[in-house]
Predict the 3D structure of the following.
Amino acid sequence: MIHPLFEHKWHLFLLAIACLFMGVLQAVLLYPLVSVSIYYLLLDGLIFSFLLGILSIPLWLVIRFVNFTQLSTIQRWINSIALCLLTLSTWLGAGWLLLYICIPIELFSLLLPTIPLRIMSGILLYIIVVQRYIMLVEIYRIVEEEQKQDAIAEKIEQAANFTAADSIELIDRIAVKVGQKIHVIAINDIQYLQAEGDYVMIHTTEGRYLKEQTMKYFEQHLPQNKFVRVHRSCIVNVEIISRVELYEKQNYLLHLQNGQKIKASTNGYKLLKKTLSL
């Protein structure tokens, strides 16, 4: 499971901006309370804010993979308090150590009375981060359940398709009526097919055509060595795929030769690998 901060580069950028803001805010709040120059107060604030940002990374791993719900209420409280104390003590200990190294000793002693204020602010920030992580864990759980259900549905549908595959006649062209005209599309001209409710949108080298048919029909009647159902709503011509890359957790993104991008499910990617003999 990828850490939320590393899913997108801008997440790290936002974290850096938030740490910078908290550091400056701390310096502004402490300036009237202690006789220390604003330069050292800014250094102080940046040290503690960026340390908290760094500690939030392993904190996610604990919340994501340790299931506290299986414990009793008392054990959950004890573990939650212990995790909070461990995080805050690590944060404060490392922060004061770096501060002791970076500033003159006489200024360091002037900052010691601010410890209670730092503890209160640390507890508040800890609660905010933990609540955010708990919300993300719940979202990931729902997404994983949906992916499992989609995978089961695809496996059942694929099993039914494979059972009847030997008795199905493959097609080499598709007739589509547009107004008063009938277009005959050769399967070699098809780039991909996409579900549109009770219809299927056929994307070709010349344009798009709407056909009153089901995705299951095309999955069964198109050559399986050339067309792969990479998603419940999409069948793609493997000959126009230029590259495949990982897209968020267990999903994949197909880059087509025409510049378009198509998402592929985990099972769809497995079928694609089998078809391409990868």
